[in-house]
Design goal:
single chain, 214 residues, mainly alpha, 73% helix, elongated
């Protein structure tokens, strides 16, 4: 959405809530336009207008819709219905039945969000070799809890403007590792750090090292 389109969206909001903008100075209005234009530069103006119209129609209170409310409404209008945790588990449960020898192939069939909740193909293989009753109870419960967290994180990330998603690595989607894998990953990290410290000490003690000359 460009600046002219942003002004059109704000003109619509001002027409619906005239008293809210009555005492604003020109500088205030310019700041509002700048903010909205930056926040919605990644969206089509027609979608933003549709979201604003929908919010105006359904809001009973006398306050104009916020940027967050408009982005959430726009996502609601365009995003496909998200898979429930039970639906996600049904896919995983089906995949585990063929994962004793075909885990990679079954993992590749899963939707991205479900893959992130599973972690990796080897996890499907491990579940395939477990007792079926335990898989359908303990494993299912743990998976659905992880999937809820993954799905919620994705929803939150999708509501962020593109310029934030592109510049903050912390908002990138990462696979949800099982607790034992997370521990192994942390253990490997610690071992690597200790190894690096040892190598550094050896270098400092070596003849001709710059640190020894100071």
């Amino acid at each position: 959405m460009n600046r002219k389109e942003t002004q059109g969206v704000l003109a619509l909001i001002k027409a619906a809530y005239p008293s809210f903008y009555r005492d604003m100075t020109r500088e205030d209005l310019v700041a509002v336009v700048n903010l909205w234009q930056k926040q919605f530069e990644d969206m089509d103006s027609r979608l933003v207008l549709a979201a604003v119209h929908a919010l105006i129609a359904e809001r009973a209170e006398g306050y104009p819709p916020t940027i967050g409310a408009v982005r959430a409404q726009a996502r609601k209008l365009t995003a496909p219905q998200q898979m429930t945790e039970l639906e996600a588990w049904a896919l995983v449960s089906r995949a585990t039945r063929n994962s004793a020898y075909g885990a990679e192939k079954e993992f590749a069939k899963l939707p991205p969000a479900v893959q992130r909740a599973v972690g990796r193909p080897e996890q499907l293989r491990a579940w395939a070799l477990m007792d079926a009753g335990e898989v359908e109870s303990v494993v299912a419960s743990n998976f659905m809890r992880t999937y809820r967290a993954v799905a919620e994180r994705e929803r939150e990330a999708e509501l962020l403007p593109a310029f934030i998603r592109e510049t903050l690595p912390g908002f990138r989607m990462e696979r949800a590792l099982p607790a034992d894998d997370a521990g192994k990953k942390e253990s490997r990290k610690t071992e690597e750090e200790e190894k690096a410290k040892g190598e550094k000490k050896t270098e400092e003690k070596a003849p001709g090292n710059t640190a020894d000359k100071l």
